Amino acid sequence: MKAQRPRGIGAYLAFFYPALMLGFFFVIPFATMVAVSFFHRQPGAFYIPAFELDNYRALATPLFSRVLVFSLLLGALCAALCVAAGLPFTYFITRLKRRFQVVWLVFLLAVLSLSEVIIGFSWSLLLSRTAGISNLLVRLGLMDHAVSWSPGLAALVLGLCYLAFPYTVLVLYPPLSRLDPALPEAARTLGASPLRTFFTVVVGTLRDAIVAAFIMVFVFTLGAYLLPQILGRPHHWTLSVLITDQAIYQSNMPQAAAMAIFFMGVSLALVGLTMVLGKRRRPAND
Amino acid sequence: MPALTLENIEKRFGKVVAVRDVNIHLPDGRFVCFLGPSGCGKTTLLRLVAGLENPTRGRILLDGADITHTPAHRRNFGMVFQSLALFPHLSVAENITYSLKVRKVDRRERLRRAGELLELVQLPGLMDRHVGQLSGGQRQRVAIARALAIEPRLFLLDEPLSALDAKLREDMQLELRMLQQRLQITTILVTHDQREAMTMSDLVVVMGPDNRVHQMGTPLEIYRRPADTFVADFIGTSNLLEGVCSEAGEVTVAATRLAVTEVPGGISPGDAVTVSVRPESIHVLPGREPGPNRFCGRVSFIRDVGSSVEIFLDCGDFQIISMSTPKGRPQVAQGDEATAELPADACVVLKR
Lengths: 286, 352
Description:
The complex is a heterodimer.
Chain A: H1 8-36, E1 40-41, E2 47-48, H2 54-57, H3 62-95, H4 98-112, H5 116-126, H6 133-139, H7 153-178, H8 182-189, H9 194-205, H10 207-222, H11 227-231, H12 239-249, H13 253-279
Helix pairs in contact in A: 3-7, 3-10, 4-7, 5-7, 7-10, 8-9, 10-13, 12-13
Chain B: E1 4-13, E2 16-26, E3 31-35, H1 42-50, E4 57-62, E5 65-66, E6 77-80, H2 92-96, H3 98-102, H4 107-120, H5 136-148, E7 154-158, H6 166-183, E8 186-191, H7 194-200, E9 203-207, E10 213-217, H8 219-224, H9 229-234, E11 239-245, E12 250-253, E13 256-259, E14 272-277, E15 283-286, E16 294-304, E17 309-314, E18 319-324, E19 337-341, E20 348-351
Parallel strand pairs in B: 3-8, 3-9, 6-7, 7-8
Antiparallel strand pairs in B: 1-2, 1-4, 4-5, 9-10, 11-12, 11-14, 12-13, 14-20, 15-19, 16-17, 16-19, 17-18
C-alpha cells in the first residue's frame, strides 16, 4: 500500500506550527546563546559581537571545576537515590488493585503542581531549628534538643529528590505495569527468593527504563538553581546557580553562555556514556 | 504412596470461589491433565500446587510431607507458564541455567547442563541465542528445558501449547509425552483442549464450571464411563437422552424402553435419569423398524468428513447423532426415514 501524502497547504500547516514554535522558542535562543558565548564582554556595558575563545579559557578556574564536579555528582546522587527508591515503590504500586494505583498516581501528580519555590521554602521551614520536625522529635522524646538541618547537603538532596521523585515514578510506571507477572513467578518456581527475583528479573528486564529514569533525574537536577540557594550553603551551589549569578548579577552574558554550553556538553557526554553502558550487554535483536 | 495429595483444597479470591473442595491423589511418575472449560479453576489449582497461591482451606502433601505453606522457591517444581515467561534480557543458556545459578552451581557445570538440556529438547547449538530471536516452537522448548534444569520433583505445565498453531501443537504434544515417559517425571498439564488431555495423559482430572472436580480417571474410563452429565457432554460428543428409570436394567425414554446393562447405585425406579450414548456405538438402519432400544426418525443431516460419517437423526423431541466409518456407512440419505439402535452396554445411566 502506498502511504498517502498530505494534500494541500492545510496539511502542511499542521507541521508548520510546531516547527515554528520549536524554531522560535528553542533553536533561535540556543543559537543566540552559542553566538554570545564567543562575543566580547564590554565591562560596564553589555557585549559586542566578536569571535574569541576568552570566555571558554576563563572557565579554567579551580572554582568552576569544583562546582562542575559537585553539580554532576549531586545530579548522579539524586538520580541514584530516586531510582533506588522509585523502583521498588513503583513495583509495589503496580501490584496493587487498579483503584489504589490511581490514588497513588494522583497523589504523586499533585506534588508536581507545587512550585519549586514553595517546595524549597516548605522544606527549609520543616528542617529549621525553630519550627522544624526536630521539635516534634524532641516532644516525642526521641531527641534532646531541636537542631537545624537546613541549609545543608542533606536538605538539598532531600529537596531535589522530593521534586524529582514523581517524575521517576511516572517514567517507571508504564514499563513496570506492562511487566508480565509470570516473569517474577517463573523466577520463584526456579528457586529464586523474592528479593533475588526482584534484582535479577524485575531490574534486569527493565534495564532500559531504569537507565531512562536515571538520566531524566540527573538532567533534571543539573538544571535546578533555586533549591541549592534555598536549602544549600554557598559551597553547595550548583553550576546553574553560578551561571545565573554570572548572567544576572555580574552582567557577564558571554561568560554565562560559555559556562552553560560547556556544562551542557559535559552533561550530554555523560548521558551518552550512561546509555552506552546501559545497552552494552543487550543483544542486537529483540 | 501417591506423589501428590490435595486434601479438601479450597481457594477463594475475595468472595469468588476459584477451587472448591478438591480431594485428589496423583500417583508417582504419571502424566496427569487438569481438564475443564475456562474459569473452572484448573489453572488456580496448578498454581496452588506450585505455591504461587495459598489455599484458603485444605492441605497439600508431597510424598507424605505437608508442603501447604512451603514457598514456591523452596518446592523444587519446574513450571512452564502459558506466556512461557522466558526472561527477555537473558540468552537461551542463561534462561535455562537460571535455576542452577540460584543454586550456586559453578559456571562450567551450568554450561554442560545447558548443552545437555538443549540436546534433550532438540535445540542443540542455540546456547548464545537471544530469546527474542527464537520461533514459537523454539521458545516452547527453551521454556521446557528451563523448567527441567533442576530435575524437578513435579513438572507443571499451564496450557503451554495453546499459543502454537495446530500442526506444531500436535508435534509438541507427542514430544512432551515422549519426554515425560523417558524421564519418568510426575507431570501435571492444565488444558481446556480435551483432545490434548485424552492423547497425552495417563490420568485426567475433569473440572466443571462449578469449580469442583467431577471425575478422575484414565482417558478411556472418562470417555466410556462419564461420572455425570457434565463430563459426558464435555468430553467428546454424547447423545444425552432424558428418561425415567423404570425397573432394574431399564429406562423409559419417550415411550421407548431402553435396556441398559448397569444402573448405578443410588438410583431407584421412578427417578429421572439421563442416558449418555457415544455416537460411534449407535447403529443406524434404513427404514422404520421399531423395537427395544430403537428410536425411529428422519435423517436431518449427514456430515461426511472422509475418515468418518456422522448421521443426525431427528426423532421429534430429541436428536440422535451416530458416527460410523465410511466402510460401515448405513445406506440412508438426507430426508430418509431411519432407525437408530442403541446397544444396552453402550448406554451409561447418569443421575439427573
